[in-house]
Each structure stands twice: as C-alpha cells, then as structure tokens.
Design a protein that fits this description.
Blueprint lengths: L13 E2 L2 E2 L7 H22 L8 H19 L4 H29 L4 E6 L2 E6 L3 E6 L3 E7 L7 E8 L8 H4 L8 E8 L2 E9 L4 E9 L4 E9 L3 H14 L25 E3 L5 E5 L2 E5 L3 E2 L2 H8 L3 H9 L3 E5 L4 E4 L5 E10 L5 E11 L4 E10 L4 H10 L4
Antiparallel strand pairs: 1-2, 3-4, 5-6, 6-7, 7-11, 8-9, 9-10, 10-11, 12-13, 13-14, 14-20, 15-20, 16-18, 17-18, 18-19, 19-20
C-alpha cells in the first residue's frame, strides 16, 4: 500500500519521506523551564541550608517561581498530550521534590556540632568561630559566635565554688537579676541542673546552671539566638546532652589558690578541698578558691544585686536585709575589698549576720572571695578583722 503524500499518516517531522525542522519551541516553555529550575533551587536552599524556623518568605518565593514555571510550561506545550503530562506529572514532581528538600532540611539544616575538650569538660558545640577562650581549670570561659546570627552565641563558663544548689549557681556568677525566668529542672552529666529562659525583644536565650562536686566547680551553659523558642531549646538540649565533667584525672589538676590565714584563736580548721574554712561555736569563716583574672570582680561590682544573691546562695535567710552598696575596706595585704553585710533569720529562727567580701589581687591576677556566718550578737568588727588578715600574695 502506497503512503499518502499530503502529509496525512506521514510520521511527524517528515513530508514526502524527507525530514524538515521541528517548529521552534514556544517562548513560554523556555521561560517556564527557567522559572521551574529557579524555584526548585530556591526551595532546596530554603529547606536544605536555612534553619527550618527561618523567614517563610523564602519558601513563598521558591514556590511562586515553581508554580509559575509549571503554568508557563503548560501554556507553551505543543500538543494536548504534553499539556496533560505537565498538568499531572508537573505538580506531582514538585510535591516530591519539596518533600525531599524538607526531609534533607530536617536532617542537615540543624546546627552541626563537633566534640571538643576544654579544662576538664568534654562536649559537642557548634562549629562557630571562637570569640573568647580562657581555659584555666579553676575558672574560664569559652564563647562561640554564630556567623549567620549577629549577636548569637553559645557560652560555657565555669569556676571553683563552694557546694551550691544548681539554682544558686547563677548568683555565684553574677547572672541573677538579668531577666531569666525558671524553665525546667534536669541533669547535666548526672548533676542536678536548673534551666532558665529569657525572652528579650531582640533575641531569646536559655541558661543552664549546675555544680559538679567531684571537680568542685560551678558551671553554666548559655545559648542565645534569633530563633523560635522550640528550635533554640532543641539546640540547647543537644549541647547539654553531650556534656561530660571531670575528664581530667585528679592528680593532673592544678592546685587551688587560697588566701593565707593561720587558724584564728578559738577556731578549728574544717577539712575541705573546695574552701579554706574555720569554725568556732558562734561563727564560721571561709575563703573560696581564687578565680583567675579581674573580669569576675568587675562583673560582680557591675550588678547591684550581686552581694544579696551570693549571700542567698551561701545561707538561706528569712526577713533578710542586705547592704545595697558594698563598703570599701582595706585589707592587710594592701588591697581594697568590697564588703556586703546581711542580717536575717536562719532555719532555726536564730538571728544571723553574714559578711561577704570580694577583692582583686593584681600581684597574682586573681579574684578572691571570703565570708563569715555568725550570730547577730557577735562582735562584727572582730569577725571582720579576721577576714581582713587573710593575705593573697
């Protein structure tokens, strides 16, 4: 049977057995494919790179490009079959790609953590630039700054301290009165921990404090970002879950620095590795390990509530009154010391007076603290003179 010559029944692209060029593609098809590719790339970037909680406008832009591209491709299709394919397969493919992109974002969009060790701690932290690092075992700070969030940071701080409940650690670091509200109780490496939350106008922050009796150190972890509360807490929990204390053997740890004071008459020295303490029937005086550097001293004096909150961490007093402004008193070693005095009732309903002292020694570049807990009827000046006799160099 002879083939027809009028083109009917002749394979597309042929006429009279000869090939001829296909019609040029409609401009809408080219523009549609371009928009579709751009939309797919924007969605991949949105869910694969940006945080899941970031601005949804990026998602809208990517979806808009993708849908506009599909529409143009459909309008520019050359045949009815092509249009049906774009109308059915196109949206289905877009849904599959968006789902895969979102899944990748959930898996890889989280802040990546890397394990690191510092001053007896082992924990996983974001791979961010180090803004500050001081790695002394007795006192130190590690601050990492987010490269994509101005002001976003993760801070780990620690220092020798007397045994203190986790909710009293923030006072020991001068963090009290900064707008943090209690959020939850938990554990950090099996140590009781208290987590507080701050919702400021510009950003949110979580602060977790704990005390490690084996190391004799108090520590806190601060995480602050411009993010949703849920995403920020998720990152904070991931870091906390990785924290390990006392990773350095005890025989390899540096010696604690205390002021020098002979046992006063009428007092007995109390055996303690976390504090230098002396006790009499009516009074207990003590000195905590020195904290390297002057920052702790400067930060403490910058917060009016520091004295009251630190005294509250040492002993619980009811109906207490604390000097709002510390007095300056000269020590025997020549350093001027800041002194806070508080009075109140203890758990046994006895009238108690607490004297708390803080000073910086430029010779050893160390900040020292001292305290005295005594009956309110005691001679306060006599107790104060004992604290002032301690020499730090």
């Amino acid at each position: 049977m002879k083939r027809k010559r009028d083109g009917v029944g002749v394979p597309a692209g042929r006429h009279g057995g000869r090939r001829y060029p296909s019609p040029p593609a409609d401009w809408r098809s080219n523009a549609g494919l371009t928009a579709l590719v751009m939309g797919a790339l924007i969605l991949l970037f949105r869910f694969g790179v940006l945080p899941i909680s970031s601005n949804t406008s990026v998602t809208g832009v990517g979806a808009g490009f993708a849908m506009a591209g599909l529409g143009l491709c459909w309008l520019g299709a050359q045949t009815r079959r092509s249009r049906i394919a774009f109308a059915v397969i196109g949206p289905s493919l877009a849904i599959v790609c968006a789902t895969l992109a979102y899944t990748c974002g959930q898996s890889y969009g989280q802040t990546l953590l890397r394990e690191r060790s510092i001053a007896g701690f082992s924990l996983s932290l974001p791979e961010w630039p180090v803004q500050k690092e001081s790695s002394a075992f007795g006192s130190g700070t590690l601050v990492l700054e987010s490269p994509r969030d101005s002001g976003g940071l993760v801070e780990l701080k620690w220092a020798y301290a007397d045994p203190v409940a986790s909710d009293g650690v923030s006072a020991a670091f001068g963090m009290a009165g900064q707008g943090f509200q209690p959020a939850e109780q938990g554990r950090v490496d099996e140590h009781p921990a208290t987590t507080s939350y701050q919702d400021a106008a510009s950003r949110r922050a979580f602060l977790t404090c704990w005390y490690c009796p084996r190391d004799g150190r108090a520590a806190y972890l601060l995480t602050s970002l411009k993010s949703t509360k849920e995403d920020l807490l998720e990152l904070h929990h991931r870091i906390l879950a990785s924290v390990k204390c006392h990773t350095i053997p005890e025989d390899s740890r540096p010696e604690r620095a205390f002021p020098k004071l002979a046992t006063p008459t009428g007092y007995t020295k109390i055996s303690s590795r976390n504090a230098l303490m002396f006790e009499s029937p009516a009074c207990t005086i003590g000195f905590t390990p020195g904290v390297p550097g002057k920052k702790y001293y400067s930060d403490a004096l910058a917060h009016p509530e520091f004295g009251a909150t630190f005294i509250g961490a040492i002993v619980h007093l009811t109906n207490s009154k604390t000097d709002p402004v510390p007095k300056s008193v000269p020590g025997r070693d020549g350093h001027v010391r800041s002194l806070w005095v508080a009075t109140g009732e203890n758990a046994e309903h006895k009238n108690i007076r607490v004297q708390f002292m803080l000073w910086y020694c430029d010779k050893s570049d160390t900040t020292f603290t001292a305290f005295a807990i005594e009956n309110a009827a005691n001679d306060a000046e006599k107790t104060l003179s004992l604290l002032l006799e301690a020499e730090c160099h």
